[in-house]
Amino acid sequence: MKRIGVLTSGGDSPGMNPAIRAVVRKAIYHNVEVFGVRYGYQGLMDGNIFQMDLGSVGDIIHRGGTMLFSARSEEFKTDEGQEKAIEQMKKHGIDGLIVIGGDGSFRGAQKLTEKGFPCIGVPGTIDNDIAGTDFTIGFDTALNTVIEAIDRVRDTATSHERTYIIETMGRNAGDLALWAGLSGGAESIIIPEKEEPFTDICDRLVRGHQRGKKHSIIVLAEGVGSAFDFGDRITKETGLETRVTVLGYIQRGGSPTAQDRVLASRLGAKAVELLIEGKEGRMVGIQNNHLVDYDINEILSAKHHINLDMYNLSKQLSI
Ligand code: ADP
């Protein structure tokens, strides 16, 4: 492996920059040249490719977003699009590609690998919805953003007797809501993976209210549905006043936390090692603080699971 490419694809996440930095520096450390691709697979097909050196990734370790920009591309999902991308890489003499992104991006990486072009996936998404890794790059930063928001809502909540519902991102995964709910001391955590009878949620709110609780906080994952609809149902059922905060895109931004920077550095470097070893079609991950790698097909057909112990604990702590 003499020359590798790196791109970020799909939804961006805080920590993609330190991951790019690790790929570039680790490759150069091993005397492998690195080419950056702007705008994900779209940029790959368009030939938006440039050589990177040690200085290209200076001063980015603390920045959110991705210096390589990200994009979504329908054209790349076609055989012609993928062949166009491979042609561009051949033109630049690139013989391996590192894709930093979520599961959609990994499908693309798998397609390229099947067409004979070696790719390695690095999980970068705030959703923490990828199998085979305990954490994805960006999750910890987003989690801390959500907690800060919950703490702020809690401050103002003490002045009013209301039920506050905070909607978090996470697509179909409840990790962000679960971790934020537990660390933010929420009364209820509503996630797609675990359905709790609506009457139980209402009973808990009413019980709290009756024993003099001034306010309640519910964290709801977007995968469950609209927090506004949920708030209306609560009011109808209990008579309690509700206020909704949909956190939205602020969860995707911000300077990556130390955890995310370390994770991004380790996973980015590991991806380079795998390419150098001649591996392909694999995703790097972290499990029990050990770096692991799995066949991308295996990852895509497996399911990420929430930590049920944490879910049950949150219930016990919010009786
Ligand atoms: P994420 O990687 O964050 O899950 P997307 O699902 O939007 O984001 O995927 C990012 C890009 O990956 C898509 O715009 C597309 O170009 C590519 N991609 C997604 N699914 C496939 C697929 N089945 N085959 C080839 N490329 C795909």
Please provide a written account of the structure:
Homotetramer. Helix 1 (16-29) runs parallel beside helix 9, helix 5 (139-157) crosses helix 6 (175-184) and helix 6 (175-184) runs parallel beside helix 11 (308-317). It is elongated, with a radius of gyration of 22 Å. The strands form 2 sheets. The protein has a 7-stranded mixed β-sheet with strand order 3-2-1-4-5-10-11, with helices on both faces. Strand 4, helix 4 (103-114) and strand 5 (119-123) form a beta-alpha-beta unit. The chain is 42% helix and 18% strand. With 319 residues, the protein is α/β, with parallel strands linked by helices. The structure holds adenosine-5'-diphosphate (ADP). The site of adenosine-5'-diphosphate (ADP) has 17 residues, from helix 4.
